Amino acid sequence: MSTASGTGENDRDATGGVERPSTAWPLFEVFVRGKRGLNHVHVGSLHAADEEMALHNARNLYTRRNEGVSIWVVRAADITASSPDEKDPFFAPNGDKVYRHPTFYEIPDDVPHI
């Protein structure tokens, strides 16, 4: 893990022995869009001091072989996601909105593939 400190050096603990970083760089998630792809795909994570450094490090780390045409970096702390444990209730169709389902329409016999 990469770390930063105001002085560029690590701080020592109270006993003067083990060095600990004074602050840790934030974690960024990296998304790359390939040459032939239409969507950005999550390719990994990295630590960086700021967004610009994260973008440059992501370019150097994840597109070394000219794999991408676009890179997104997002602070992991800024991402809000649904929980996999809640997938059934979260994505279940709303039963009280029956108008969203084509149950009130008669499909003619001469219309194929419906």
UniProtKB/TrEMBL annotation:
Pfam families: PaaB. InterPro entries: PaaB, PaaB_sf. Residues 1-20 are annotated as: Disordered. This is Ring-1,2-phenylacetyl-CoA epoxidase subunit PaaB.
